[in-house]
Write a structure and sequence with these properties.
Blueprint: H1 3-10, H2 13-27, H3 31-47, H4 54-65, H5 82-86, H6 89-103
Protein name: Serine/threonine-protein kinase atr (Trinotate prediction)
GO molecular function, one term: kinase activity
Keywords: Kinase, Transferase
Length: about 110
């Protein structure tokens, strides 16, 4: 789950597709299976990089949604992820709440 945001940020669309294909072939794992079991956690970690790398992260999330993830290039357009994020909003907010509390010094909690 930690490698996905790094792949999205460091490469362009073509490099992301090549990287995902390389991971599948070298590790004998299916990206689809990883996404089925870890999608929410991957999205949470992607959101940590959203401010500085908005387009790259959103295009990566688009790539994860496809029936065959990362099989072709994706271009983000405003509004195309609205329904996807709306159904996950509470989980995203809970993740950020936990992340912020975890980073606070103990004396500020309670």
């Amino acid at each position: 789950k930690y490698v996905f945001p790094e792949i999205f940020i460091k490469g362009n669309n073509d490099q992301t597709i090549k990287c995902m294909n390389f991971i599948q072939s070298e590790m004998s794992i299916s990206i689809s299976n990883i996404l089925k079991s870890e999608l929410q956690a991957i999205i949470h970690h992607c959101f940590l990089y959203l401010y500085d790398h908005e387009i790259e992260i959103l295009e990566g999330i688009l790539g994860m949604q496809d029936r065959r993830p990362f099989s072709h290039k994706f271009t983000y357009k405003i509004g195309c992820l609205d329904d996807f994020f709306q159904s996950r909003l509470l989980g995203i907010l809970a993740f950020f709440n936990f992340s912020l509390l975890f980073r606070l010094p103990r004396k500020h909690i309670l």
